[in-house]
Amino acid sequence: MEILAYIAAVIAAIAFVVLVVYMVITLKAARETLHNVSETLSSLEQQVQGVTEETTQLLTKTNQLADDMNQKSSKLNSLFDGFKGVGNTITEFNHSLRELTNSVSRAANKNPEKTSQAIKWGTTLMELWKKKNK
User: Fold this and answer.
1) Could you give the CA distance from residue 76 to residue 82 in angstroms, rounded to a whole number?
2) For the chain, how many structural domains are there in total?
3) What is the pLDDT of residue 89?
4) For residue 74, what pLDDT is reported?
């Protein structure tokens, strides 16, 4: 029976040695895998930093372009306001000219004799002016 106990102890010792050998092999494989993961993460970190820098530069340029567009847009707005002012002035001039024409027409209708005399004098003056400038 003692022999059985020795045989069992030897088998247990061999099993323990086999277990330790497989554990060492597994731990070496795990260490190599962790080393590869560490290198991959380092490479990935560098790539992310590069992308972050490029993104920051792109955002800066985009903001500069947006500011430039806003400045140019405000300048165009003032230009269009100026055009609007010119349009209003022309409209007012047309209105004044229409009122003047209506006033002259009413005056001509009230005094047809004076109107025809004024037209004759105007025609005469225009002919004299043309002759003088030739």
Assistant:
1) 10
2) 1
3) 86
4) 82
